[in-house]
Amino acid sequence: MRKGLPRIVILLWSIIILIIGGLAAFYxxxxxxIPAFLNNISPTPIKTTAYPTTTPSSLPPALLVSxxxxxxxxxxxxxSSTPAIPQPQVIGHSVAGRPLxxxxxxxGPVEKMIVAGIHGGYEYNTIILADELISYLExxxxxxxxxxxxxxxxxxxxxxxxxxxxxxxxxxxNNVDLNRNFPSNWKIEWPxxxxxxxxxxxxxxxxxSEPETQALMAFVKAHDLKxxxxxxxxxxxxxxxxQPPDQGSLSLAETIAGVSPYPYPPIDAGCMFTGQLVDWVxxxxxxxxxxxxxxxxxSDFEINLGILSVFLDWSYPE
Length: 318
Fold this sequence. Notes:
9 helices; Aminopeptidase; 2 domains; alpha/beta; about 30% helix
């Protein structure tokens, strides 16, 4: 018996050492390593530990390698549907070097155009109207039909606009009336009775002698315009383009007259019109009208918002 005791003690100590060793390995290597013989001892599944949320930079280096990079996910927000604010296209420059700025709304094949400020500061309220229409369209671009493009030249005579808000602002820097400078029945001089005649002014040295006229003519010829409005002031009404007026211009004038208080047929002051923009437009096969605002101060914005609506809807009569 005494000889057997040491063997029993040794066996017991061996078992104890194995158990202690297994427990030590489990403690130092983590829950992922479990001695095979202990699987039969504890059938209860081991719960995983949830680590607190933290940033990768705060984790120990040993754990950084086990964290997969976050997957890119699309933004839950829809893309912005707000149209971009149009930037003006400079189509040329005035005698004094000021830009002629055209704003574009829409990208459809049916092109139409509005021109303001041909008589500069003397008819400055037409430029105010153009700026109001541009501002309105920037936040209401949905009113432009999908098949349309609308161009607005806000100030055809920026030199006159900067010079004076009275008689002295009518001509460009060369003292030329730009609405007498187009190559349609052009004359350097014309009979003055019934016409604007407050200070001396000419039709230019020749038809299309002015850089403003040349720039607008080049722009119009580069596009397939279907309809055209030239804004003026004051009070005489709606003038269809052409001498005599063409059928498209007559139709456009009648359509606009139906939604506005401006006189139509226009008031006949007995003036002989020469070198006019709207007549040259008519010569190009484009339906065009001159619209005269009520006076030299007010923009008549609400009236012309209604005009803009029918202008965009108008199509050449079949």
